[in-house]
Design goal:
It contains 26 helices and 17 strands. It is of the alpha+beta class. It has a domain of 196 residues: Aldehyde Ferredoxin Oxidoreductase,  A, domain 1, CATH 3.60.9.10. The strands form four sheets. It has a six-stranded mixed sheet, with helices on both faces. It is globular, with a radius of gyration of 23 Å.
Length: 648
């Protein structure tokens, strides 16, 4: 095969079996790779009604067909599972070197099932695959584990795996790649439930291209854009997502408000972070290097180096938790990476907990005497340790936003601003909220939100087109624009391409600045794989993937009522709030019609499923449904979890 390597690696941990399975050419024509291939595997193999932390859950890791090729920004790994955090589709996307090395080793996907009887790690050395004892790694941080495995297997080894948070089944534990890259939505807890600590990979092969000269020329054209474009060179390569502090309105104290640029403390502004920066870095083969490398100058972690401090950390663990101390924020970022936790899930859960504390719904009697005051950075850092190790009150917070609200009761859910268990805060109706409401992995900023029409701001839309951050063919109609942007993100996650530090179309849709919308990507896929892709077929593949994901969530009990507009308690019953809900309902209905979903239920209609080659999916969901209504992942008794371990 060209582009793809032609092999799926299947690991049955219960049986201690490793199997190499030929890649089905028909499937990858229809689902491309990466996210598409993983979502197809999950729908086909994850049984309805299982607990995400049971051995029956499936964990998938996949690069895309363009990963490992001369095309830049393609070292992206999709990690997918039934999420123990949300109870629906849980996929995350991480950078680093792992995706590239996995492709060079010869594999298009790893599918992991079962549960090992004792801690294991998987060693992939090209065609040689071994499950090895990980007893000496269990209890160690992701940083320690990476160092040990690279010393054991060589520096040209990439490591993905978990820290103590994943071992202790913290609901928002992440898969951490090469110390600093995180694939979120709770996949780390699934690794832990399977007794799988890490996967280390070394690959020295090559990805064969169907038309190498043509592909390399297209890749050179793509590279020139990033080397010459002013936005990429002067903003993204200099500040990365730190520029979001001035433009993306970070939350403040569990979304009591969203901060404008003039409300951002100088220390948290893009230039404020420069005093800690000692270098720039990026994923394998990236010409942009959007990520910082920083050194903590003083305090208890003085001299410690970290990387990839993104806007999401400054927002979720910083301002939205009431913390504005950059030293504390860097320390918390490093702790999240070491323990293996998503900064969004961790930060939003802490912010929610702090609001409950402020309102008296949680008291010091509940916390064991620990302060949850907004501006107490030391107390928040202590809580992070306790969450990762499931110690004391941290054991409860480790359940994550939605489960925490269910357990506490007493009106806590009124302050849990979530969509399907994930939070991006309360927002007025519009594209911003519609994208969060309909995302197939819960409220999310990388499924479509900032990809169309400048979030309903015409001036911003025109500016982004001028800056080549949006293609000129983009529709200003909100629902149509969101639909196109969903296709872009779906294809991006499936080909193995980065969306860019600031969600740039030029990053996610290769050559979009030169060719009509999908045409540059079509040319690249043809030259790479030899398959006769066309623009229409790519659009259909994107729709097939996202609709299959919707059907996966339907089996988890998701219907129209869960495509919600999170609102604050003091807005819900007001005239403004009722008008906002009405507007959201109208946009949601139009969205369903555009996608071929039943406007009354939000379930994909049989006609649409059959039209895009998913008849077997229609047969499945209509013969076994209706399903029990979604109410988050199954609750466990808190004393059932593993806990403890050495502090990072």
């Amino acid at each position: 095969m060209y582009g793809w390597r032609g092999t799926i690696l299947r690991i049955d941990l219960t049986k201690n079996e490793i199997t190499k399975q030929p890649l089905n050419e028909t499937i990858v024509r229809d689902f491309i790779g990466g996210r598409g291939l993983n979502s197809k595997t999950l729908f086909d193999e994850v049984k309805h009604g299982i607990d995400p932390l049971d051995p029956e859950n499936v964990l998938c890791l996949a690069p895309g067909p363009l990963t490992g090729t001369p095309l830049g920004l393609t070292s992206r790994l999709e990690v997918s599972t039934l999420s123990p955090y949300s109870g629906i589709l849980g996929d995350g996307n991480a950078g680093g070197s792992f995706a590239t090395f996995l492709k060079w080793a010869g594999y298009d996907q790893i599918v992991i099932t079962g549960r090992a009887s004792s801690p294991k790690y998987l060693w992939i050395d090209n065609e040689n695959i071994e499950l090895k004892d990980a007893s000496d790694l269990w209890g160690k941080t992701t940083w320690e584990t990476t160092d040990i495995l690279q010393k054991r297997h060589g520096k040209q080894t990439s490591v993905a795996g978990i820290g103590q948070a994943g071992e202790n089944l913290v609901r928002f534990a992440s898969t951490i790649v090469d110390k600093y890259a995180s694939a979120a939505r709770g996949s780390g807890a699934v690794w832990g439930s399977k007794n799988l600590k890490s996967i280390a990979v070394r690959g020295t092969g090559k990805v064969k291209l169907a038309r190498p000269d043509e592909f390399k020329q297209l890749a050179r054209e793509d590279m020139k854009f990033f080397l010459k474009d002013r936005t990429q060179r002067k903003a993204i390569a200099v500040y990365g997502t730190h520029i979001g502090m001035m433009y993306w309105h970070p939350g403040y104290r569990n979304f009591k408000k969203h901060l404008d640029a003039d409300e951002i403390p100088d220390d948290l502004a893009p230039d404020g972070w420069k005093k800690y920066e000692i270098g720039r870095t990026g994923c394998y083969g990236c010409p942009v290097k959007c990520k910082d490398v920083y050194r903590i100058p003083d305090g208890r972690c003085a001299g410690e180096i970290g990387s990839a401090l993104e806007f999401e950390c400054i927002d979720c663990l910083g301002t939205n938790c009431g913390i504005i101390d950059p030293i504390a924020i860097m320390e918390m970022e490093n702790l999240a990476d070491k323990y293996g936790m998503c900064v969004i899930g961790l930060g939003n859960t802490i912010a929610f907990t702090k609001e409950l504390y402020e309102r008296g719904i949680i008291t010091k009697e509940d916390t064991g005497g620990q302060s949850l005051d907004w501006n107490n950075a030391d107390a928040q850092i202590e809580l992070i340790h306790r969450i990762a190790l499931r110690e004391g009150f941290g054991n409860l917070v480790a359940e994550g936003l939605y489960n925490l609200a269910k357990i506490i009761g007493k009106g806590a859910m009124d302050y849990c601003y979530h969509v399907k268990g994930l939070s991006r805060g309360p927002h007025p109706p519009g594209l911003f909220a519609l994208a969060h409401a309909t995302s197939t992995r819960g409220a999310d900023h990388l499924r479509g939100r900032s990809w169309a029409y400048g979030e309903n701001e015409p001036d911003l839309f025109q500016m982004l087109v001028k800056m080549r951050m949006l293609p000129p063919q983009m529709s200003p109609d909100p629902v149509e624009g969101l639909t196109i942007s969903e296709r872009a993100t779906t294809l991006t996650d499936s080909i193995g391409r980065c969306k860019g530090a600031v969600n740039s179309w030029a990053c996610a849709v290769p050559l979009v600045w030169k060719y009509p919308l999908w045409n540059g990507l079509t040319k690249l896929l043809r030259a790479a794989t030899g398959v006769d892709f066309d623009d229409t077929g790519l659009v259909e593949a994107a729709d097939r993937i996202s609709t299959l994901e919707r059907a996966f969530n339907v089996r988890q009990g998701i219907t129209k009522k869960h495509d919600r507009l999170p609102q604050k308690l003091d807005v819900k019953e007001t005239r403004q709030g009722k008008e906002e809900l009405k507007k959201h309902e109208e946009m949601l209905t139009e969205y369903y019609k555009t996608h071929g979903y039943d406007p009354t239920t939000g379930i994909p209609m049989r006609e649409r499923l059959e039209q895009i080659g998913l008849k077997y999916v229609a047969d499945e969901i209509f013969s076994h449904g209706p399903y029990s209504e979604w109410n988050g992942p199954p609750l466990w008794s808190l004393d059932k979890y593993p806990h403890g371990g050495a502090r990072a």
